[in-house]
Each structure stands twice: as structure tokens, then as C-alpha cells.
Please model this.
Amino acid sequence: MINVAIDGPAGAGKSTVAKGAAAKLGFIYVDTGALYRAVGVYALRKGVDTKDAAGVSAVLPEISVELKFIDGVQHVFLNGEDVSEEIRTPDASMAASNVSAIPSVRSFLFDLQRDIASKNNCIMDGRDIGTVVLPDAQVKIFLTADPEERAMRRYKELIVKDSNVKYDDVLADLKARDYQDSHREIAPLKPADDSVVYNTTGHTLERSVDEVVDIIKEKTNG
Model:
């Protein structure tokens, strides 16, 4: 199976670019961040502090997370409930960052991610796919962009759902997550030694998708 690992910070366009590239190549797209968001949402629902490793670990046995591909689109199910919309809130985003620093959560989701990769040609995105989850992936790409542009992209997504969202708050949250993700002890966010670093600042989505597809084809002789 051909596995492509795309890592990078929040708002870099990983999921959008990965979806587009997967569609062009006929691969399955796997958003691993959605799995962590689902765990974070469950902890929030239970009133558990998402930074409390013991508290989060205690509720893991109550959690079942599944990825289902419906008409080619990934849906995330938490204990049988489709939470694909709920996991995209700012609270879920920060909760995901918090729980992803907990070793027991990473172990809980690790086997699921690797099992999907072993059975499918896939593009998997996240924070540590090329460094930890799929260290033998044939293609590793570290996708990034300037913080201000990443924040504006996220702001435009959120303002559609909540007119009270402020750009400055989105930028502050993004910078906080960047710091937390890159400084955590367990699997910090960083490019794999053999990854291609691709900066999408100022690029259209179409250009980014095409260039990522070109990188994948070049690396796999496709």
C-alpha cells in the first residue's frame, strides 16, 4: 500500500489539500486530528479537564471512535453518533491539542490509524504521522503557512457559523496551539527528517493540491 503522511500546524490547509490530493489519486483520506477531536469532545461532555491525564485516561474505555467513508467523505462517529460537525468547534480544537499530549490517548488511537494505513492507499494527515504513526510512509510532507494566513483561513471558516468570532482571538488561539503542539513531550510537532516542507502561503487551493500531487507522484514514481 502507498501511504502518504502530511503533517503541519493548525490551519495550514492539511485536510483540504489532503482531501483534494486523495481524490485526484484515488486514495482514501484519513484525518487523524478528527480522532483526537472526538476524544476531546467526549471528555468535554463528561466534564473532564482535557489536560488531566488521569481523568481522560479513566474515560477512554467508554469511548468508541470510528471513521466511516460515506460517498467518499470521511465521517467521524463517537459511540455510534456522527460528530463530524461538533468536532470542528474551537473548543474541540483546543481539547484535541490537550488530549493528544496524553500517552494513553495516543496509544488508544495508534492501532486504528495504522490498521487503516495497512489496508488502503491513503493520505493521512495530523501532527506526527511521518515521525511516529507511519515512519515508513513512502511520502512525507510537512505543510505549513504563515500564522496570519492560517488564522485568516480558520476565521473565514468559523465566521460562517458564528458571527461573533474575532480574527484576533482566532490568531491568538492558533499561536497557543502551535506552541503547545511543538513543545509537548510526547511526539512534538516537527517535520520528519525525510519530509518535503511545503509552504502554502499565498497559494490557491488548486495550486497547493496540484503541487502536493506532483510531490507524491515523484516520490512514488507514479
Notes: Residues 138 and 188 are 21 Å apart (CA to CA). The first helix runs from residue 14 to 25. The chain is about 50% helix and 15% strand. The longest strand covers residues 65-70.
